[in-house]
Structure formats: structure tokens, C-alpha cells
Amino acid sequence: MTARARPLVLTLRARPEQRLDLSPLVPDRLVGMTEAEIAAIELQTTRTRVTVGDAFRLRMGNAEHICIEQACDRLDQIGQGMSDGEIFVDGDVGSQAGRLMTGGRLTIRGNAGPWAASGLRAGIIEITGNGGDHLGGPLAGETVGMRGGVVIVRRNAGARTGDRMRRGTILVEGAAGPWAGSRMIAGTLIARRQVGALPGYLMRRGTLILGDGAEEFSPTFVDCGTHELLALRLLAEFVNQYSKALTTILRRPLRRLAGDMAATGKGEIFTRI
Amino acid sequence: MRAMRAVTVNGVRIDDTFAEAFPMRATGVVITADSAQWARQAAITMTGFATSVIGCGCEAAIDRALSPKETPDGRPGCRVLLFAVSTTELQKQLTGRVGQCVLTSPGSACYAGLNGTETLKLGNALRYFGDGWQISKRFGEKHFWRIPVLDGEFLCEATTGLTKTAVGGGNLLIMAASARRALAAAEAAARAIEKIPDVITPFPGGIARSGSKVGSKYKTLRASTNDAYCPTLRGAVNSALDDDVGSVLEIVIDGLTAAAVAAAMRAGLAAIAKLGAKRGALRVGAGNYGGKLGPHHFRLKELLP
Question: Which of B163, B188, B221 is the endpoint of a domain?
């Protein structure tokens, strides 16, 4: 959170009895609203009405910068559809954090639930803890997952990270679960530690960079040899602004696996030699 | 025909005249390679046969060499500028030259060399060489194409900038007693102009010995020798030359802006004046069409050191 503007602070009073939908609490919508108007916004996901005022203590400030304190994993869809501004969350969050964001920055100082960054179009999401399953992936019925932007996970990500990803960059400083980059259409996913089995399962295009390999590679990926490519050097420059830890794995020769040959085979996995 | 001589600097007579220049379309690319030698080789090959839009389709040359710190991939490089009379022709020249001369050069990569709201296709036009194996990569706002080639991959930025406010046709006519002295003065001017950013001198070594006039007695020719400045025709035509002038060379300057062209002409004039009349030029003039055709007029008097 930048120091230049006093943020709008929402402090969770207590762990809510029902899951709350925090998608209305985005800077684009709150800018210009009074404290009473914000307090009256409904967040419930059941028949029992819960407003912002019921769930949170408010401290008014510049709504372009929102700070959610003492968050918990019952707070879903934080930052959904955000197009500008900044949201800082202190604590864990529930599912679909940053879903369909088109700009701005969402920082979660804690763990994220499933489908964080689902359908992300642009903007930056940083998760200092663990990302859940389906990070950047589509919801049921959707054909495309993340379509742009950058997601940084400082610890580990769950299963099917980057599922059906179309564009953008996912940076995981720890490990990712099984099927990382499954059904990937394009984009870039980098994981520093060993990922689970079958990365790139049925991927069509796109790039996975696995600093420490995978528990098991699919036999439908074929070895294309060891290379030191210029594109990875440029990628390292880009990644360096978000994660210094990940740049080191990009600045050395890597083994290129092409696949998934069970799909179009135009994807690639770079891994240690 | 002879222009009024207004000023003499270090023995060099500077005509009271102006260079008349025209709006052009321009673009730029940055070429890198594993060594400065190979980056320059690719750039020289790409800018071959690009001296004049009259016969080459475009005017192109190396703007300047780039250190590894100045290039996107941290390797040595060159910035090349291309100028043409239309956007369509510029796109055609860019695609053809990068495709045939940079893509083919060992270890090369090609990036946008100009920022602009309007763009030309770079990798977006060349990607098809990958025959389906090309890979699109977006890093933030930057979009690249990776094209598999025999030595690895050709990395090429998707687009580069286009400017429609470039200026072509800044010039200096260097008149000396002998060919040797004219060349000495022209070389000094070309070296000085090399240091000015955002301009090129597209002729061989930055110097043209066949300055032209518009049209010809032959209907098919768009340009022909500028007989008024040919020393061997001094007595036969309405010559612009004094009796002491035995040789003339021309420097043609294209720039991304009028200010860049003016800076280049100023640097060239200063270098010619510094060399002096005894070792170099006796007189400096500039080519124009009476001021009726081109909107940019660069008066030599205003550019004097």
C-alpha cells in the first residue's frame, strides 16, 4: 500500500457466519461514495442480509486504495472485476480473489482460496502465502482461464495452476500442484520448485518453466534438447521486476520439451538439464 | 543562378540559401547479435541499396551503434532508420529488408527502434516463416515472436513505431577546388553528422557524388544529373559554380524531426568550416526548389557555428 494516500480501511469484525461476496468492494465502485453508502452495501450469499457495516469497521479514506484487515477465508471474490486502483488484504481470502480483474493491483498478505486470478485480463495479483487450486483457471463452463496480467505467488500454488490459461504470466516462487498448465492455450507459467505430476497436460501452446522439474512428465512431451534462448533472457528481465528468485532459473541453459503431443504439440516445458 | 554569398567562415563561403526538405514516413529497428561485428553486419546488409527513394524504395542507414546496456537483450546492437514516401512502401521495405537481411544473419534479433502511437508490422509480418512453429510471447506491454531457425530462434518484436512527421532531404552542397579537398570536407561533415541522433545520411559513407535534379530530357527518368553543379559542364550550362570550384559533393540528411535535421546540418557545417578552405571546401550551398515544394526550409545562415 502506497503511503501517498490514506486508504479506505475495512476491518473485519469477526469471522462471518456465512461466506461473503466482496466483489462490490472495488475502487472503481467505491470512489465518490459516502461512508453510509459504503456501509449499506450488501455482501451476503445466503438469505440472511449482511452489509459492509455489519461485517466491517470502516475508516474512510481514498477509495482508490482499499485495505482489508483481519481477513479470513470466508471472504470470496475480493477485487473481482477491478479495473484500477489498489486493494491490500491482510489475512487469508476465499475463492476467486481477483477474478476478471482488468487492471490495478491486488495484494494478499496470506493464502488465497481456489480460482484466484480466474479469468484475469490485466493487472497484478500478489499472494504472499499459498495460492489455491485452479489459480488463473476458468470456472465450470468457461472455456478460457487467465487472459493477461501477472500473478505472483510467493509460496506454493495448488493443482491445475494456469488451467486453460490464454495469456499472461504466473510466477510461483515455490512449487505448484499436479497438472500445472493443464489445457493451456498460451501464456507463461514459471515455478521455482518441483511441481506435481503431469505438467502441461493437454496443453496446446504456451510455456511452462519448471526450475526443479516435475514429479512425473507425461510421455506425450518430447525432448528437444538443451538451449539457452534469447527469449528467456528477455523473460528474465520482465520477471525480475516481480521476483528476483525466479530470474536465476531463466539465466541458464534449459532442456526444452515440446508437447502435449496428445493435443497440438505447440506448447513447451523448459526444465533443468 | 549563383546564390548570393553572405558569410565567410574560416575561408569557406556559405551561400545565403536554404535546403528544402519534405515530409516523409519513417520507422526504426534495433538489431542485436552476439557481437557488435555481427549486429553491424546485419544492419549494413539491411541498409544496402537504400540510398534514395527515387530508385531504392526507401532511404535507410545505421543511426548509431548501441552498447549492450542500450539494447533490450543486453547484447551489442545497431539502430537502423528507414524513410519512405508512403506508409505502404515503408511497410513493404521494412518487411523485405528485415526478412531477407536480418532474419538471415547469424544470431540476430530485431526489436522496435521507434516508439509511436502508429505502428508497422515487424515480427507480425515475418512470423509466418516459422511455418506454424512460431511462438508468440508477451512480456508486459511488449509482444515478441520466436521463429525457429537453424541456429536456434530468431526473436523479433511484433511491431515497431511509425512517424509521419519525419523529414527527408536536408542537404549540404560542398564545393572545393579539387575532388580530394571536396572529399576531405565531406568526410569531416559526415563524421560529425554520425554523432547526431535520429538522423541518417543514406548515401555511401554518407556522401553523394551524383546530386540530382528533378526530371530529365528523357521522359522515363524521374531524376537526372544536377548539371548546374557539374564542374565539367561549367561553361556549357547555366552553372551554379564559381571559377575556382573543381569538384562538388553532396550530403543528404533524413531525420525523424526537423530539429534533428537542423542539428545534423549545423554539425556538418561546423565540421566543414573547421577544416577550412585551404584543406577542404571553398564554398557550401544547399539544394532547393525555390521553396515552393517542400515545407521545411533550413537556411544555412541560421545554422552557422
Answer: B163
Given a cut of 70, the residues of chain B with pLDDT beneath it are 1-6
B43, B155: one domain: yes
- The chain A residues in contact with chain B (CB within 8 A) are 148, 150, 167-169, 186, 188, 205, 207, 227, 229-231, 233-235, 237-238, 266, 268
> Nearest-CA neighbor of A58 among A118, A98, A8, A97?
A8
End-to-end distance of chain A based on CA atoms, in angstroms? 40
Q: How many CA atoms lie within 13 A of B166 on its CB side?
A: 30
Q: Give the integer Cα–Cα distance in Å for A149 and A156.
A: 19
Q: Which of B74, B132, B140 sits opposite A238 (nearest CB)?
A: B140
Asked if residues A194 and A178 have their Cβ atoms less than 8 Å apart, the reply is: no
pLDDT digits 0-9 by tens, A190-205: 999 999 999 999 999 9
pLDDT tens for residues A48-84?
Answer: 999 999 999 999 999 999 999 999 999 999 999 999 9
pLDDT over 60 at A2, yes or no: no
Interface of B with A (CB under 8 A): 72-74, 109, 132-133, 135-140, 142, 144, 146, 152-153, 155
Range of the domain at B70: 25-163
The pTM is what? Answer: 0.92
| A209's grid cell | 518453466
Chain B nearest C-alpha distance from A150 (Å): 8
- What is the ipTM for the molecules in this complex? 0.92
B73–A268: do the CB atoms touch at under 8 Å? no
DSSP B100: I
